[in-house]
Amino acid sequence: MNHQVKPPEDNLTELMAFVLLGFADMPHLQWFLFGLFLIIYIIILMSNGTIFLITKMDPALQSPMYFFLANFSFLEICYVSTTLPRMLMNLGTQRRRISLVACATQMCFVLMFGGSECLLLAVMAYDRYVAICNPLHYPLVLNHRVCIQLVTGSWTIGIPVMIGQTYQVFSLPFCGSNQINHFFCDIPPILKLACGDTFVNELLVYTVSVLFVMVPFLLILGSYSKIISIILKLPSATSRAKAFSTCSSHLMVVMLFFGSGMITYLRPNTRHSEGTDKVLSLFYTILTPMFNPMIYSLRNKDVIIALRKLLSK
């Protein structure tokens, strides 16, 4: 661990603000990256917004599966809006300074929305488990009240935990460099700037990651192991294909989101590479929200039909 003595007055201004380096190591690509990420942000807002609207408006999409999908799409919009606007502003203005309060706020919302996404993906896996393994009890088990409770729990359970974790990180003394080699205020790069012993903070990161990433992921794997065993027992190839199609979209999103998230937060701190962290973060903060609507709409006939109805109006 890094044990440095905090200078008394020298770095007072650095304690009040950080500098998000982002993609400063690629000066000739700044405007290209600005245009690229702006297009991606517009795609995310429009595609997830469209899925949210059609699942609310179309009478054929009023099942629990689409209720969860609507919430997931809205959550993706919230999640990506905590990082991309700031990144676009930094790329456009080249002013990368971010205040301590703004940095802590961004981290807190990234953690809250990220935790909610993990829990909601687990809820969506449970929905598919009940629909395929207990189809006769599906309307009873996942009635409207239960769906509301599951979604509310997914959105709110992590709030006090993530606020506490953010407070723990920003209660550390920052007496070294104030440059964050990342495009948003994430835990690993900020812990690298802290002086003193960060062991407790790193332990807390692992504990929260296990609770909000590993546990939901294992629950999802458990649900899908049962789902696959049931599907393989179905008599006809057509029914097997139909059952697989309702699950494969969700499973693709799960692998993309959880895979990059677990590598970022659960691998040993000594193996953290700043360049690798940035690439992995792009996956779970930007690429997953962009691919999610495409995966669900292109592989779901009901969504395609609802989309055609909306466009024909």
Q: Considering DSSP H and I runs of 4 or more, what fraction of the residues is helical?
A: over 70%
Order of helices and strands: HEHHHEHHHHEHHHHH
Strand order of the largest sheet: 2-1-3
- Low-confidence segments: 1-14
Topology:
Layout: H1 12-16, E1 17-20, H2 30-57, H3 64-81, H4 84-93, E2 97-99, H5 100-133, H6 138-141, H7 144-156, H8 158-170, E3 179-180, H9 187-191, H10 199-232, H11 237-266, H12 274-298, H13 301-312
Parallel strand pairs: 1-3
Antiparallel strand pairs: 1-2
Walkthrough of the structure:
Helices cover 74% and strands 3% of the residues. It is mainly α. A three-stranded mixed sheet has the order 2-1-3. The longest helix has 34 residues, at 100-133.
Task: Give the key terms.
313 residues, mainly alpha, 3-stranded mixed sheet, disordered N terminus
Concise synopsis of the structure shown:
By secondary structure, the protein is mainly alpha-helical. The protein is built from 13 helices and 3 strands, in the order H-E-H-H-H-E-H-H-H-H-E-H-H-H-H-H. It has a 3-stranded mixed beta sheet.
